[in-house]
Design brief:
18 strands, 276 residues, 1 helix, mainly beta
Length: 276
């Protein structure tokens, strides 16, 4: 009898070890142009969220399809994270990022929203400045965290410059999460267009780039010329193309494309018209 019980126990353990995962929850449908994921709510709890270009919806739990909070999005708001706490209630607040293209320049702004009620805590959006979130830390060791925002003139000054805005907050009770790296955003334009014989390509970067390349292609996809731009800081840069190929010979009239790449990642392309 003991042998039978032992064998049964072994078989039961083997079955448990090889049990297939079971479907626990299916999220709401999210459009391919939107995003979804989980926000920190407290240090130990999460909330599922969706962002569809019109509204940011924060659900009532990690596996919930019922919105506890719906935040209307403004034009240009493209990303959101929940990794800082500035209100002092122990609930992580939501940072919503926004960018708009003005001519050849990208202007960034942001706002911080209270995750308990959807109210705006503070907004950084001024026509004369571009804003990036730098950090949230207790930098003066007074027991309260400081919110540090980087502000730069818009349109960009020459030479580029910025300053830090440091705000005292009530945040004390939760661990401040590491601020994630946001995707590189690029503004690309050229003038004149059409052009003859040369054009200036204006490139605006939202953050520094370590290894940029500008490649000129014709309409058949044949590479005409490659310009190694190297390391560039965030801001606006000018690139000149004189309408020549790799051998410095003039190319014929037609449509050409300028593709900007960082390493193996293609960031943006721009169509240009050469008329001789």
């Amino acid at each position: 009898m003991r042998i039978v019980i032992a064998l049964f126990s072994i078989l039961l353990m083997i079955n448990i070890l090889h049990a297939q995962p079971t479907l626990e929850w299916t999220s709401p449908t999210v459009p391919s142009t939107g995003q979804a994921g989980w926000f920190y709510y407290t240090v130990d709890t999460w909330r599922f969220y969706t962002m569809d270009g019109t509204n940011l919806r924060v659900m009532s739990g990690p596996e919930s399809s019922t919105p506890a909070l719906t935040i209307p999005l403004q034009t240009g708001e493209y990303n959101a994270y929940s990794y800082i706490e500035v209100t002092g209630d122990g609930i992580y607040d939501i940072v919503i990022f926004k960018y708009v293209t003005v001519g050849s320049n990208i202007k960034f702004s942001l706002r911080i929203v209270d995750q308990t009620n959807g109210a705006n805590v503070i907004t950084f959006d001024n026509a004369n400045y571009s804003y990036l979130l730098n950090t949230v830390l207790d930098i003066d060791h007074d027991g309260f965290t400081e919110l540090v925002v980087e502000r730069s003139p818009f349109p960009p000054a020459s030479p580029d410059n910025f300053n830090f805005l440091v705000y005292q907050t009530n945040g004390t009770s939760v661990e401040q999460r590491e601020i994630p790296t946001l995707p590189q955003q690029i503004g690309l334009a050229n003038y004149p267009n059409p052009f003859n014989p040369a054009t200036k390509i204006t490139l605006t970067l939202s953050q520094p780039a370590l290894s940029l390349t500008a490649t000129i292609y014709d309409v058949s996809g044949r590479r005409i010329k490659q310009l190694m731009l190297g390391q560039r800081v965030a801001g606006t840069h000018e690139i000149g193309w004189d309408g020549t190929d790799e051998n410095n010979l003039p190319v014929v009239s037609g449509t050409y494309f300028c593709q900007i790449s960082e390493g193996t990642t293609t960031l943006q392309a721009r169509m240009m018209q050469l008329v001789r």
